[in-house]
Hints:
Elements: H1 2-22, H2 28-59, H3 66-70, H4 74-87, H5 93-106, H6 113-125, H7 128-138, H8 140-146, H9 160-167, H10 175-187, H11 198-204, H12 209-217
Helix pairs in contact: 1-2, 1-4, 2-5, 4-5, 4-6, 5-6, 7-10
Amino acid sequence: MENDAKEIAISVAKGIAKVLVSSIPTVGPIMTSVYSEVVTAALQKRRENWERSIEDRLEAIEDSKIVDKLVGNESFVTCLVQATMQAMQTHQEEKYKLLANAVANSIDSELSEDKKQIFLRWIERYSDLHIQILTFLNDPVSFLFRAGILPRNSSEHLSLKQAIEAVYPEKRQDEDLITVIIRDLYSDGLINSKGTNLNDFVKKGFTTQIAKEFLGFISD
């Protein structure tokens, strides 16, 4: 019964993806050619990648009561449908993983429907770097220690942007991009500050409660 419930959920995701692939209209011979030779192949690949991601994630769930939890679970179905639609709009493997985690976590989630909808929109809107930086800010101590950046005195100052560049040195040339991402996270209420000294990183971190809930929702 447990496997049957998972198979049903996986089949639903596959069915939605199939419909989305077949629903894109074409007009005229040029678009028909582009569609058949380029778009169809790309969408088919996305569909297969998403099906594999959601199948692997749901199969990993070990719960003898999974059937009871899925039957009549409208919240789960809504999350599955929306995640499938988003998956067909991207080619990024990390997005598939985040969306699959969100679907799986929605089964037992006590989050309100409003939060789930907001979190799904954030997955769609945020880049991989948004998620990386938010993850860093949720646990800055371990990241800073691994980067060899330790607090030396209470008067030492290191901006949030400088700390991110130290942890992700390959992003130093993307200074403007990091500024935009920090602004996005701050505007969405996911971080408490746009800059402070190094000791504040160690003492409290930067993420808000809703940020922690969001990260939990997209984690495996």
